[in-house]
Each structure stands twice: as C-alpha cells, then as structure tokens.
C-alpha cells in the first residue's frame, strides 16, 4: 500500500526562511513561518521514514523522531543540504531561501549618518537547481510561491530545476501562503500532469502531498 512506501527511506526536508546578515544585529529575512516544512517532516516520520529536517530560524519546536539541523543563511542551508543529499530518497524543499544576500556583512553595527544607505546584494546559489542538476535516484520536490502567472512560472521552475513534482501556491489568496495555517496549492508533475487541491490545513496538505509522492514513486 502507498502509505508504507516511505518506511525506512531517507527523507530530506527543508523549512523556514533564511536570514542574510547585514551587520551583527541586522539581517534580510522573509515571512516564511516554517509550518509547511515542519508538517511534512512530522508526517513523513509518522510514515516511518528516516527524516532529516534542515530549518531556518522558526518559533516551532523540533518535531519528535526527526533529526533537526538548524541553519541561518542560504549558504549554510546549501552546505547542510548537500551533506545529506546523496543517500536521500526523497527531497522536499519547502524552505524560502533568500535569492540575494548583502555582498558584505559589516563586521560592526552600521551607524546612522547619511540620509540614504545603499546595500549591494549579490545572488545566492539556487540550492534546488543544484540538486536537480546532480539528481540520480532522488525524488525531488520543490515549492513555488507566486503572486502572478502561477502556472506559467511554476511550469518553468519544474523544468529548469529538473523536479519530479512542484507544489505551487498563489500567496495573494486569503488562506494561502506564508504564515497562514492553511494553504491552497496546485501540484505539477514532470510528465505535465497537474491537479488543483482545495483549501486545507498545512497538516492535511502535508499528508496529501506525501500520499501523492508515494503514488508517483510506486508507478
Ligand atoms: O525560484 P524560486 O525561489 O521561486 O523556487 C522555489 C524553490 O526553490 C523552493 O523549493 C526553494 O526551496 C528552492 N530554492 C532554493 N535555493 C534558492 C532559491 C530557491 O533551493 N536560492
């Protein structure tokens, strides 16, 4: 039966947002709560998978039965994810990784003086794209949060990042996206198949996503 397919498998989940330091007391962050990724980790553990959760800063407690590794920056998340990737069977990247970081993190607190302050940002590596490029046997799942052209952008990401499945959500809908307890998503698959899911809690959605993954792995 589909629900037992993950038993004994190594499942790698990322969750939460990253923080990119500006100086010792400030950072650039985002509104990710970590709830979706934590729910996935909890449900995968309940399905008897060996779960490693790589999480940015969140207020959520470590889920029982899950190996939790906390990171702050995208660079740290990349290191942690790459160290766990090769022997993972399923990888779900629910984290909201910062696309850019301040080019220089000031070693001292930046003092206020001028009327304007310019921060130069440089691009962070796209961890998921790197995973897609070196994929061997892993089933690779990404998330996409969009505010417009949801299906178009999502389809492009699925292909560019070499994913097996993409969970796409329009974060402008009420009851969806960052910090909400519920979500409304569309699932896109490598073979072009798509399905729309109704609004549900992130816990229910985690269960649904894992059930769908099991269906596809067993095909
Ligand atoms: O391209 P975009 O950031 O919208 O893609 C989102 C997906 O890519 C998520 O699964 C996210 O975890 C992953 N990602 C990543 N590294 C980045 C940016 C996004 O792994 N630097």
Automatic annotation (TrEMBL):
This is Coenzyme A biosynthesis bifunctional protein CoaBC. Binds 1 FMN per subunit. It comes from Lucifera butyrica. One of its GO terms (biological process) is coenzyme A biosynthetic process. It comes from the Bacteria. The chain holds residues 181 to 399 of 399 of the full protein. The gene is coaBC. Its EC number is 4.1.1.36, 6.3.2.5. GO terms for molecular function: FMN binding; metal ion binding; phosphopantothenate--cysteine ligase activity; phosphopantothenoylcysteine decarboxylase activity. It catalyses: N-[(R)-4-phosphopantothenoyl]-L-cysteine + H(+) = (R)-4'-phosphopantetheine + CO2; (R)-4'-phosphopantothenate + L-cysteine + CTP = N-[(R)-4-phosphopantothenoyl]-L-cysteine + CMP + diphosphate + H(+). Residues 11-219 are annotated as: Phosphopantothenate--cysteine ligase.
């Amino acid at each position: 039966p589909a629900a037992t397919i993950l038993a004994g498998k190594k499942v790698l989940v990322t969750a939460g947002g990253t923080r990119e330091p500006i100086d010792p007391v400030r950072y650039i962050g985002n509104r990710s709560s970590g709830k979706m990724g934590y729910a996935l980790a909890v449900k995968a553990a309940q399905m008897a998978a060996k779960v490693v959760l790589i999480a940015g800063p969140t207020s959520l407690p470590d889920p029982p039965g899950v190996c939790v590794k906390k990171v702050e920056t995208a660079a740290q998340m990349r290191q942690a994810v790459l160290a766990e990737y090769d022997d993972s069977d399923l990888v779900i990247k629910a984290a909201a990784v910062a696309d850019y970081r301040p080019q220089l993190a000031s070693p001292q607190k930046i003092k206020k003086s001028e009327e304007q302050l310019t921060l130069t940002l440089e691009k962070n590596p796209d961890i998921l794209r790197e995973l897609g490029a070196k994929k061997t046997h892993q089933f690779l799942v990404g998330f996409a949060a969009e505010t417009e052209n949801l299906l178009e952008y999502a389809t492009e990401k699925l292909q560019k990042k070499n994913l097996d499945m993409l969970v796409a959500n329009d974060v402008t809908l009420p009851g969806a996206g960052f910090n909400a307890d519920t979500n409304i998503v569309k699932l896109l698959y490598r073979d072009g198949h798509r399905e729309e899911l109704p609004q549900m809690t992130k816990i229910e959605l985690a269960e649904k996503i894992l059930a769908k993954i099991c269906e596809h792995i067993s095909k």
